[in-house]
Sequence to fold (370 residues):
Amino acid sequence: MTNPTNTPNHQYDGATAFDRRTLLRGATALAATAMAAPEAFARDYGAGAEPQRYPDPDIIVIDPKRFKAKVGNTSIKRLYTGCLWAEGPAWNAQGQYLVWSDIPANRQLRYLDDDGHISEQFHKPSNEGNGNSFDFEGRQITAERTRLVRYEHNGTVTSLAEQANGKPLNGPNDMVVHPNDKSIWFTDPGYGAVSIYEGQLANTGSNQPYQKEAVYRLDAQTGQVSKVADEPFKPNGIAFSHDYKKVYVCDTGITHYPNASNVVWSYDLNGDKLSNPKQFIDMKLDGKSGFPDGLRVDTEGNVWVGAGWVGPGYDGVQIFAPDGVRIGQILLPETCANLTFGGKKRNRLFMTASQSLYAVYVETQGAHIC
Fold:
């Protein structure tokens, strides 16, 4: 997702989009009025920091009956810092490593689970790659600024999608792969085409660089790209439910459309179609509302959402039960863009948050492979 303070001023259906100064004032006001947690956010994540006393106070249980994933004798760790805008974490189980993107730095990084080594230029340049995933053959899939690509086993890069509806993609963001037919479902909000910080301006004079923002399905056999949903203003993170009966999509359209809301949409999944669109999660908490950027689902069906742009007491990960009720939080000192489950037991939550990569063990597992 784009930095909201760097949003260009465009027009859409007569409504003026938020400009940089408006969003900066709004972000400042939200941060100033956010819930205070001075002790929690004074904590030191540095290499020489004192050990964190258990249980970690920044893992918050809102509903003890429904949120049972908190581990009492573990703590949030910062594994790396130094990114400009960290995004798109994806876990490779065969190689036991995590890959993630630093979009403005035009690179992808890799964390090796065996010794904690960080490869700072795993892929560079990355064509300002954003979201990442792995298919069921272990091949990395990346949403680059202009296209969806796949890294092959022999080291070559295959372009999977560059157009839809006879027009260029706005700029793919995130994707998931279905295990049955290997189809790839991806979002196309176009942030890489409306910001020179994260990409290159399309100069079309619209918040929709080339076409209406939408969710697409790429058929693994034919390569055909089909639009499956366009209700979200700017569809961002995407995930299947734990049982593959639903698809969840984050909407970060508030960055450009004043009448958008910070919500997560849900759809019923029927073969290669989506139906019954609903605003499933409202990100409001104690009168504050932040962006739902990326999300993942655990084996119990709970939805873990990377959130931020509010301030202390809000930014981090928010956990929702399968009915959309908030049941827990993981507070971070930075806005959390995205997250994924990984580790040998798939019970370690990795979180890309602004400049840093964080991780914490949880008493649940990711429902999907990465």
Confidence is low (pLDDT under 50) at residues 5-40. The longest helix spans residues 20-33. The chain is about 5% helix and 40% strand. Helices lie at 20-33.
